Amino acid sequence: RERTFIAIKPDGVQRGLISEIIHRFERKGYKLVAIKLVIPTKEFAEKHYHDLKGRPFFNGLRDFLSSGPVVAMVWEGQGVIKYGRKLIGATSPHNSEPGTIRGDLAVSVGRNTIHGSDGPETANAEIALWFKPEELVSYTSNAEKWLYEP
Ligand code: GTP
Ligand code: MG
Fold first, then answer.
1. Cα separation of 92 and 123, whole Å?
2. 113 labeled binding residue
3. Is ipTM strictly over 0.95?
4. What is the mean pLDDT of the chain?
5. Which residues of the chain have pLDDT under 50?
């Protein structure tokens, strides 16, 4: 099944939102297949957001992502890349709908608590950037037979 890379950014960790955010993905029915707490270096943050290099906010974004612990995760499930982005909400919390993570839990674009891969190629690239293959755990969740038709 499809996998996506999700990260709780330093603001989410510092504000005590780790369990709240994980709860939303868990409740939906997605399966956690990798998780760790890391403080990314500036170089690493730059790699993660390489597509935004040259944007006026890039240095601030890179410095912020490397300013403290980040919860790096891989979530698995049918449609998790696209729907995970729906759970997260629009990039700017000013536009995120209530009910979304950013809509409910954030107020400014530079401190929007969470990152989610924006497509299948970026999901694969980001999972490979943040995790070694052996850190991805394959297992059967008992809930799966209640979440999916055979
Ligand atoms: P991510 O899941 O973090 O990748 O966010 P996104 O996919 O919704 O947006 P995008 O990839 O375009 O931007 C990455 C991050 O850069 C955003 O989550 C914001 O934190 C930050 N960002 C994007 N646009 C702006 C902006 O106009 N100003 C500032 N300060 N930050 C921005
Ligand atoms: Mg993005």
1. 21
2. no
3. yes
4. 98
5. none
Q: Is the CB–ligand 1 distance for residue 110 below 6 Å?
A: yes
What tokens appear for 33 in the block? 């297949």
Those residues whose C-beta lies under 8 Å from the C-beta of residue 93, and which sit 6 or more positions away, are 102, 103, 106, 107, 108, 109, 112
- Can you read off the two tokens belonging to residue 149? 């038709």
Residue 55 φ/ψ, nearest 5 degrees: -75, 150
pTM above threshold 0.90: yes
Nearest-angstrom CA–CA distance, 39 and 63 = 11
The 3-state DSSP class for residue 119 equals: coil
Nearest CA to ligand 1 atom 4: 115
Q: Residue 60 has which token pair?
A: 């601030």
115 assigned to active site:
yes
Query: Tokens 């990152």 map to which residue?
Result: 115
* Residue with CA at minimum distance from ligand 1 atom 2: 115
